[in-house]
Specification:
Blueprint lengths: L2 E8 L8 E6 L27 H12 L6 E5 L9 H10 L3 E6 L4 H9 L5 E5 L7 H5 L5 H12 L4 E8 L6 H10 L5 E6 L10 H5 L6 H8 L5 E5 L3
Parallel strand pairs: 2-3, 3-4, 4-5, 5-6, 6-7, 7-8
Antiparallel strand pairs: 1-2
């Protein structure tokens, strides 16, 4: 596994659980609002460390058994890692719950994760309404693969959520009507408030300047489409 780093303690990444979060390197999207740009385009983590970070991570997990309940795997895009399945199995073997964050571009990996019962929770990012997906992701997108991941997750037997970082200037209220029709019936959908600190593309600030979008209004309008809906602001 190409691991950039890991966070030893979090109460927000895995709902209701005391967890650690591990960050993988590399992503096939170029979302301009990404708040982990160093994991997307920076090569500082790409130099092989002989597996030292992974070894340190598992040593940490062994030491924290009985104190931590879960591990969140995020990135970057974790499903790009060739040994992600083996990595998840190793965590499960230690007795931890596992949450996988994904952009949904690898439904083959999502299916394998579900088939082998090695995730307890999956969070998939919904970047925008289908017609605006590529513009928001910053690259050409195979929507059929994205939609397949959505269906696999919706029809799984594990806890899951879909979530969208709401960026004024990139999203409109109408986009969320379309998203609601697309993922209607989902167990959980979250709107994440955009905060303009460290982002992948500083030019995005030209689009967001002076723009505002009412998350409460969106929630009130579409929440009946989901089992649960929430607005997140971690600050």
């Amino acid at each position: 596994m190409n691991i950039a780093s890991f966070q030893r303690f979090t109460l927000v990444d895995y709902p209701g659980k005391i967890a650690a979060t591990v960050f993988t390197v590399g992503c096939n999207f170029r979302c301009p609002f990404c708040h982990n740009p160093e994991l997307v385009i920076n090569s500082q983590f790409m130099v092989s460390d002989g597996g030292k970070r992974e070894k340190d991570f598992f040593q940490f997990l062994k030491q924290r058994k009985g104190k931590l309940e879960a591990v969140c795997i995020t990135g970057g895009e974790p499903t790009l890692q060739p040994d992600i399945i083996k990595f998840m199995k190793k965590i499960k073997k230690l007795g931890y719950l596992v949450k996988l964050d994904t952009n949904g571009t690898r439904p083959d990996v999502v299916k394998k994760v579900l088939d082998e019962n090695i995730a307890d929770y999956i969070a998939m990012d919904i970047k925008n309404s289908p017609i605006k997906y590529a513009d928001t992701a910053g690259v050409a997108v195979d929507l059929d693969r994205i939609k397949l991941s959505v269906e696999l997750i919706k029809n799984s037997r594990i806890s899951y959520e879909f979530r969208t970082t709401v960026v004024p200037g990139l999203h409109t209220e109408e986009d969320f009507d379309k998203i609601a029709r697309w993922i209607k019936g989902a167990e959980k959908y979250a709107l994440q408030e955009y905060r303009e600190f460290k982002i992948l593309d500083p030019k995005l600030r030209e689009k967001t300047r002076g723009q505002r979008i009412d998350l409460e209004k969106i929630k009130e309008k579409i929440e009946n489409n989901f089992g649960e809906m929430e607005i997140r602001n971690y600050l």
